[in-house]
Design a protein that fits this description.
This protein is mainly β. The chain has one helix and eleven strands; from the N terminus they run ββββββαβββββ.
């Protein structure tokens, strides 16, 4: 599927898959200069791009880069980012440093992954009774850790 990308900053880089079978394309920091995140600091990192998917039944999802998260403690501050197919503003990535050491992010660093996923819209209907299941109302670890 074609995703049209518009560069909004001079140092912006288009998302890029690093291998043929990569599910997520890397997003790059379009910073004016390096920024340092102390432990528990948060920041919003611009990517310098806006996108326009060719179909409306997709969502672009931002996910953490596992290496950055596991090795340095930098992950997404909102868990996962959702970019609706009709959003045309700059993609920005909220990050948080959960590590014990400060981490410096520089222009051009790979900061997150972008996934393109199909969307199925639900039709929400009020009901007085829901189907019974084996799980029932068990949540938050009720099926095991």
């Amino acid at each position: 599927m074609q995703i049209r990308c518009k560069k909004l900053r001079q140092n912006a880089k288009l998302p890029e898959y690093k291998t043929r079978s990569s599910a997520g394309a890397d997003l790059y920091a379009a910073l004016d200069g390096p920024i340092t995140l102390a432990p528990m600091d948060r920041a919003v990192i611009p990517t310098g791009i806006a996108v326009s998917p060719e179909r409306e039944d997709v969502v672009l999802m931002i996910a953490a880069r596992s290496g950055l998260a596991v090795k340095q403690g930098v992950t997404l501050s909102n868990g996962v980012g959702i970019i609706d197919a009709d959003y045309r503003g700059e993609i920005a990535v909220g990050v948080v440093n959960l590590g014990k050491e400060s981490v410096t992010l520089s222009p051009g660093d790979r900061i997150a992954q972008l996934l393109v996923l199909p969307v199925c819209a639900g039709i929400f209907v009020e009901a007085d009774i829901l189907d019974d299941t084996d799980r029932g109302t068990g949540g938050f670890g009720s099926t095991g850790v």
